[in-house]
């Protein structure tokens, strides 16, 4: 019984320490179908629906379910809840739709490769597309 209590205390301490440490997050690579030169602020504006064109080219942002928490925190500098809320407001106020959500890096990469003006983000270094930035 004493060993069990000691084990439980050790697990509780380990859980508390783990909760106090920041979660590891990986790099996020913003990618585009065509060579686009965008600052982090411009990327943010595209994903928030503030900028919809690069010259005459219609931009098509796409979200990535697996990398979205890191992207929203690092690039957009907001919480996922705030990001969703901003798109809900835009849908009602401006009639805009949020970027489509793809499940994996591979789906985002396929979408970006297939659509001129597409811009997305992945969690591993991509091939065959222009890397706008690494965050």
Largest sheet: 4 strands, mixed
Mean of residue pLDDT values = 84
Structural class of the secondary elements?
A: alpha/beta
Please mark out the parts with pLDDT under 50 across 5 or more consecutive residues, or reply none.
Answer: 1-24
**Euclidean distance between termini CA atoms:** 50 Å
Tell me the count of domains. Answer: 1
Per CATH, what is the topology? Answer: D-Maltodextrin-Binding Protein, domain 2
Classify the helix fraction into a percent range: 40-55%
Strand coverage percent: 15-25%
Report the CATH architecture: 3-Layer(aba) Sandwich
Total helical elements: 5
Q: Order of helices and strands, N to C?
A: HEHEEEEHHEHEE
Query: What is the number of beta strands?
Result: 8
Provide the gyration radius in Å. Answer: 19 Å
Spatial strand arrangement across the major sheet: 4-7-1-8
What's the CATH H-level homologous superfamily?
Periplasmic binding protein-like II
CATH class: Alpha Beta
Shape: globular
Topology (elements, then pairings):
Blueprint: H1 2-20, E1 29-32, H2 40-47, E2 53-54, E3 57-58, E4 60-61, E5 63-64, H3 68-76, H4 80-94, E6 101-102, H5 105-114, E7 118-122, E8 130-134
Parallel strand pairs: 4-7, 5-6
Antiparallel strand pairs: 1-7, 1-8, 2-3
Keywords:
about 140 residues, alpha/beta, D-Maltodextrin-Binding Protein, domain 2, four-stranded mixed β-sheet, two-stranded antiparallel ribbon, 5 helices, globular, disordered N terminus
Structure description:
This protein has 135 residues and is an alpha/beta fold. The chain has a single domain (26-134), classed as Periplasmic binding protein-like II (D-Maltodextrin-Binding Protein, domain 2, 3-Layer(aba) Sandwich), CATH 3.40.190. It contains five helices and eight strands, in the order H-E-H-E-E-E-E-H-H-E-H-E-E. The termini are far apart.
């Amino acid at each position: 019984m004493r060993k069990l209590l000691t084990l439980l205390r050790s697990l509780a301490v380990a859980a508390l320490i783990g909760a106090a440490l920041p979660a590891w997050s990986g790099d996020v690579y913003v990618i585009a179908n065509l060579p686009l030169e965008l600052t982090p602020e411009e990327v943010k504006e595209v994903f928030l629906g503030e900028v919809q064109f690069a010259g005459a080219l219609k931009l098509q942002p796409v979200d990535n379910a697996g990398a979205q928490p890191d992207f929203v925190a690092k690039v957009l500098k907001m919480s996922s809840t705030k990001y969703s809320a901003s798109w809900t407001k835009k849908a009602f106020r401006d009639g805009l739709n949020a970027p489509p959500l793809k499940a994996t890096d591979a789906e985002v990469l396929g979408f970006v490769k297939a659509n001129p003006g597409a811009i997305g983000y992945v969690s591993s270094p991509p091939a065959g597309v222009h890397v706008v930035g690494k965050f």
